[in-house]
Design brief:
The complex is a heterotrimer. Helix content of chain A is 72%, strand content 2%. Chain A is mainly α. In chain A, helix 3 packs antiparallel against helix 10. Chain A has one domain: ABC transporter involved in vitamin B12 uptake, BtuC (Orthogonal Bundle). By secondary structure, chain B is of the alpha/beta class. Chain B has 15 helices and 13 strands. By secondary structure, chain C is mainly alpha-helical. Chain C has one domain. Chain C is globular and about 60 Å long. The chains are: A mainly alpha, B alpha/beta, C mainly alpha.
Chain lengths: 355, 444, 297
């Protein structure tokens, strides 16, 4: 009743092409932003901001990056965590070695470094497809983590091979409190999400989707395959790189290369599969699901099953339920949570008179 | 939201059962909460279940036998980290405010999680204790007031290894011209030993051959072929998990004598030798605790906790194993630190700051160890403001095919070499992070 | 030269160990197009079940049969609960479902049998063959040779099964074309169940061999990571490819670590097989024995 486009007439192409053509969507988005920027930092406890919301946003950004590559351009990658590592270590080194470099520039440089590495490891995609490519991206995953561990230069010859992120300072303001870090991360993620949304709506995005759906056909209609695929790798790795830098600077603080392992790559892949392949909102939904589910399970197990089940059983039970729920979601909605959201919107449009 | 729903349930319960809630609050006022960021699934489960099991059993013992510490009962709650850094941070934040005085002490048993919360513990004023892992240079308490890498560090251990090998060769001067290979897990953990051992090689005149093994280390043929080629006199095994039995098996395969292999303390549990079968016989490994059930403290746990069916281990045969006893050591240190702090601040639940004082003034001497029934179980130790390591002693044990047998006395670390390295590294960190080290002469 | 030979032989023999795990992947991929990431977890679960049953004093052969039974059950349940509802989904969804399955299997195995690490003795010592050691100073492990023998036997059995039985022929038909196979009345679901059972059998054998080599612990799941480069090198759909790929990966990995490793600080066998397989794919994008397919618009 309230959610319908009836009566909203477009009189120009510009109006027709805006991101949210329906007024209610615009209002909804605005509400979400107001909530996220103003209400959340004021209302939510430190625990929620530090331990759940910040990682949720950072992983959303990484998932967004992977979704561009896998969801839009159709190139399966299992190396996202390694590109995050590149972003984190590159930002650290730029900050360390260039005096007075603004932190945001360091994040961008970190992202660009990841993009350069991403292009290098994206080259095989010109010949290799599908699971062969996925396994080949594992080469990036293992090689990068190995190189970061092996060559002391990357960690400024720290005896333990870890880097400690410098303090975040922008125009003299020190980002120390969790709320300020949250707002910084939120701003960066919101801007990059907007950029991603526009990219996939433009000719670049259409070229990616054409390559995803059938690369030979795309080539026939004049899309430059190499250019398109490598651009997807570069953009995706840039997003992952910035996410990695934020992970180090705004979330964990001191990071080791082994933290960016294959498990994390799988988690990010899960986020886009559960959230919805080829969907911007899906990346956020998926990240929320994968970040929250294990924590929720653990809280439930500790609260309800404490003392009832032996601890090793209850811990393994969490793992089983986590895996089981993933399978369940894949079966119930193979197109991800984003699809459920879409269905809900369709239903809303007709409500309360579906016929 | 979670917070809200919980308050809601509490209110509901309060409305219904006023009386019992009052009792509950009273009880809570006299409880010391300890958050346990444990892990019981995945590749690390064998270590996690043993260590946290032993630790919980010791706390149960203190509650059952003594009625807590001076009447203050210990309570605890587990939080599954899966050895994952992000999950560890979440557990840290979740448990931070629990209990009447918040989390007393954080001990994640994972170097990665240690790094992840390093800055946070100082800000939140919760001490972090990392026994036998974590950041080595945190032993400099002037730069790291909130971190306690207790008993001994990787660097101290590496020097005791050289001492032990020297004693087996017939004296430290006999090390000259010998060749020692260092087979290490190719990670931050594995690389910890390299710098110290290189210095030791210079000091004693032996050749040092580092050999990296890629994670997880379930295939080591190339490394052992190299060992066959290099023919070292000794091999130091600095491994983790499956890397250890694989190394022992591969040593047997290449005919390298296991008696000439010395392992780090994460390579020296039953979990590392049993899978290797006969190939492990004669292998020696370091430890800051010993295996066995013949200690009064372990016996007391069996009597008071397991007889009452309150034990934490499902597999009771693991009581007395290396990992289990290591957990008991964690328990002893936690409880003794609380006791020390109570002596100053009174017999009540302690805050993180008070607990930090207790840890910094912890003194478990030989007499106290005997009272605890842990004589020979762990080394005596004394923490000071500048020295957060406290002991540095390591003991070597040899696997006889069925169990670990003592192979040496407690060996002191070469602190003349290690301490300046720790201070140098800590100073570098302090400079990077703009920390002014504390002046320990002014600390009470 | 003697040392080179020793490295080469050692590498070839460990390559066979990788092939064991790769075989399981190939079987399932061939028959159902599912890239079954849970194969590593299956190796772990099979070995752990076997050792767990053995601990109760059950004789070796009976434990083997029981563990195989458990794997068959697991395969049938997977087919019924996971794969059947996901029929016709894109391959990546199926792939992710098998990662979910990995968590379930790992949790079940550790929950039922506990987290402790166990040893496993098959009665063959992992020692060098003495006469070869004396004669040419080349160390070749008895156990690795035994493993290769088992691998040869296993491949021969699989070949017989695929070539000369009714079920085998049906399997090959399904592998060629699902719909065509369905249309001539081959019961697809039965075939999948059988394939998962066979893959379970391969996982059990691989688990026993690897378990006897390194102990039965959670790290058996990591064997999957060793098998993946073998898989892309040999092709996802070829059983001989899995063996040949294993031999190539095993030997080059060892040669590279021994002769090149020292120039970059060693420990390169985590990524070297992947980079090598990658370089190989640039020349042959479908792997050594993979099916070549031609894209048509």
């Amino acid at each position: 009743m309230f959610y319908r486009e009836a009566g909203q007439f477009k009189t120009s192409y510009v109006a027709d092409q805006q991101i949210f053509p329906i007024a209610q969507d615009r209002i909804g988005m605005l509400l979400i932003l107001v909530l996220a920027f103003l209400v959340v930092p004021a209302v939510f406890s430190e625990y929620w901001i530090k331990a759940i919301l910040i990682p949720f946003l950072i992983f959303s950004l990484a998932a967004l990056g992977l979704n561009i590559l896998t969801g839009y351009a159709g190139q399966l990658s299992l190396g996202s965590a390694a590109f995050m590592a590149v972003g984190a270590f590159a930002s650290y080194n730029f900050m360390l070695r260039i005096d007075g470099l603004p932190i945001l520039v360091a994040f961008v440089f970190g992202g660009l470094s990841a993009a350069a590495i991403g292009i290098a490891f994206g080259l095989p995609s010109l010949r290799i497809k599908g699971f062969y490519l996925a396994v080949a991206t594992l080469a990036a995953q293992f090689f990068i983590v190995w190189a970061l561990t092996k060559f002391g230069w990357f960690s400024n010859y720290s005896s333990s091979g870890v880097i400690t992120a410098q303090e975040i300072q922008i125009f003299g303001f020190r980002f120390l409190s969790p709320e300020s870090k949250y707002l910084l991360v939120l701003t960066i993620v919101a801007l990059l999400a907007l950029a991603a949304k526009n990219m996939v709506r433009s000719s670049v995005g259409r070229a990616w989707m054409a390559v995803r759906d059938m690369d030979v056909a795309a080539e026939v209609i004049g899309i430059r395959i190499m250019h398109t695929k490598l651009l997807a790798f570069a953009v995706s790795s840039f997003y992952c790189g910035v996410a990695g830098a934020l992970y180090a600077y705004a979330y964990i603080g001191t990071v080791e290369p082994e933290g960016f392992n294959l498990d994390l790559s799988f988690k990010i892949l899960f986020m886009i599969i559960i959230g919805g392949v080829g969907s911007i909102v899906g990346a956020f939904l998926g990240a929320a699901f994968i970040v929250l589910l294990p924590i929720a399970l653990d809280v439930m197990v500790q609260e309800w099953l404490h003392g009832i089940l032996p601890p090793s059983i209850s811990s393994n039970l969490q793992l089983i339920v986590f895996g089981g729920l993933i399978i369940f979601f894949l079966i119930v909605e193979p197109h991800g949570l984003a699809r459920l959201w879409q269905i809900a919107k369709e239903k809303l449009r007709l409500w309360p008179f579906p016929h | 939201m979670m917070k809200m729903s919980k308050t809601l349930t509490h209110t509901l319960i309060a409305a219904g059962l006023l009386g019992s809630v009052a009792a509950d609050a009273l009880a809570q006022a006299n409880e010391q909460f300890i958050g346990l960021p444990s892990y019981r699934v995945g590749a690390y489960a064998a270590g996690g279940s043993g260590i946290y099991g032993g630790w919980i059993d010791y706390m149960s013992l203190v509650n059952e036998r003594d009625g807590g510490i001076n009447g203050v009962k210990l309570t605890w709650e587990e939080c599954e980290t899966e050895y994952n850094n992000a999950r560890g941070v979440e557990c840290y934040e979740r448990m931070k405010k629990k209990g009447s005085t918040g989390n007393t002490v954080f001990q994640p048993l994972s170097t990665g999680i240690t790094y992840s919360v390093l800055d946070k513990v100082a800000a939140d004023k919760i001490p972090m204790v990392t026994i036998g892992y974590g950041r080595t240079d945190a032993a400099d308490g002037r730069v790291f007031p909130w971190v306690f890498p207790m008993i001994t560090t990787y660097w101290s251990q590496a020097t005791t290894m050289v001492k032990y090998i020297g004693s087996k060769e017939g004296g430290p001067d006999k090390l000259k011209g010998k060749k020692i290979a260092y087979l290490y897990h190719d990670s931050a953990f594995g690389k910890e030993g390299i710098a110290v051992l290189e210095k030791q090689a210079q000091k004693y005149g032996f050749t040092f051959v580092p050999l990296a093994v890629a994670h997880p280390g379930n295939e080591q043929q190339s490394q052992w072929l190299k060992i066959r080629q290099e023919k070292p006199d000794w091999v130091i095994l600095w491994g983790w998990g499956v890397m250890n039995p694989t190394a022992l098996k591969a040593a047997a395969k290449t005919g390298f004598p296991r008696e000439k292999m010395v392992g780090v303390w994460w390579s020296g549990a039953e979990e590392d030798t049993i899978p290797a079968g006969d190939a492990a016989k004669g292998y020696t490994a370091a430890g800051f605790n010993v295996a066995g059930q013949n200690f009064p403290v372990v016996k007391a746990i069996q009597d008071k906790v397991y007889k009452a069916n309150k034990g934490n281990m499902e597999d009771k045969s693991r009581v007395g194993s290396i990992y289990y006893n290591r957990g008991v050591v964690h328990g002893i240190i936690t409880v003794e630190a609380i006791r020390t702090a109570q002596a100053k601040f009174g017999k009540k639940p302690l805050s993180g700051e008070e607990m930090r004082w207790g840890l910094e003034h912890l003194n478990i001497d030989a007499k106290r160890l005997k009272e605890l029934g842990a004589e020979g179980f762990m080394p005596d130790m004394k923490i000071t403001c500048s020295d957060h390591e406290g002991s540095g002693k390591v003991k070597y044990q040899q696997w006889d095919g069925r169990q670990w047998k003592s192979a040496s006395d407690w060996i002191d670390a070469d602190s003349e070499m290690v301490r300046p390295m720790i201070e140098e590294s800590a100073a570098k960190y302090a400079k990077e992070k703009n920390i002014t080290p504390r002046d320990c002469s002014k600390e009470g | 030269m003697q040392f080179f030979l020793e490295v080469l032989i050692g590498g070839l023999l460990s390559g066979v160990m990788y092939s064991f795990v790769a075989l399981g992947f190939v079987l399932i991929y061939k028959a159902s197009g599912v890239f079954n990431f849970a194969q590593g977890a299956m190796v772990f679960a099979a070995a752990l079940t076997f050792v767990g049953i053995l601990e109760h004093g059950v004789p070796f052969w009976l434990a083997f049969v029981l563990a195989f039974g458990v794997m068959v059950l697991l395969g049938a349940l997977t087919e019924r609960i996971v794969l059947r509802p996901l029929v016709n989904q894109p391959p990546i969804t199926l792939f992710m479902a098998t990662i979910g399955l990995t968590y379930v299997i790992e949790g079940l195995a550790q929950g039922v049998w506990g987290a402790s690490v166990r040893g496993l003795e098959l009665g063959i010592q992992d020692e060098p063959i003495e006469w070869l050691m004396d004669a040419a100073n080349i160390g070749v492990s008895k156990f690795d040779l035994f493993g290769s023998g088992v691998a040869a036997l296993l491949v021969a059995l699989l070949a017989l099964f695929f070539q000369h039985t009714r079920i085998g022929r049906a399997l090959r038909a399904v592998a060629d074309d699902h719909q065509a196979a369905l249309s001539i009345g081959i019961p697809l679901q039965n075939i999948w169940r059988i394939v998962w059972a066979v893959a379970g059998f391969v996982a059990l054998v691989a688990g026993l061999i690897w378990g006897a080599r390194n102990g039965v612990s959670f790290s058996l799941t990591f064997t999957a990571l060793k098998a993946l480069p073998v898989l892309i090198l040999g092709g996802f759909t070829s059983i001989p490819g899995a063996i040949v790929g294993g031999l190539i990966i095993g030997s080059t990995e060892k040669l590279a670590e021994v002769y090149l490793g020292e120039y970059v600080g060693g420990g390169i066998d985590s990524w070297f097989p992947y980079v090598m397989a990658l370089a190989f794919l640039l020349i042959r994008p479908e792997g050594l024995f993979g099916e070549k397919h031609i894209d048509r618009v």
